[in-house]
Amino acid sequence: MNLSLISFLVAMVVITLLITALLKQKARPTKRVYSAGTDDYAQEGRFNSGLVQSRWAEITAMQNSGPSGLKSALMDADKLLDYTMIGKGFTGDTMGERLKMGGDKFSDINAVWAAHKLRNEIAHQVEHDLVPSQVKEAVNNLGRAIKDLGVKL
Known about the structure:
By secondary structure, this protein is mainly alpha-helical. Helix content is 67%, strand content 0%. Helix 2 runs antiparallel to helix 3 (66-87).
């Protein structure tokens, strides 16, 4: 056999193995696991209120680190609320779906939506004017939402 035929056969075997692996992974349900930013992870299916409390302390401190700290605080507070909602049994594929399904659990669902929308704007828009007071209010509203779900911060 010549070299090009061997190369072609090897390539076909590799492609077949990759496609098989991708199809198996796609068929397997995945669970969302919140990364605490350290080696501490919430185990699948188990809610960790201690993780939420320690992470919230870090988020609070981030807010005093300038614009990038404010952005990070908002992003992490939003993720932390989503983690809490999942841990408390909210269903849906996205945070927006979970908010729609369980909005009655929050003392001010409009404030939670506004905070989540601000987070999305900052995350997805190249140029977004960062208003520190607006971001801090959004972070506080996300914290209040976590408290509404029964977690002490």
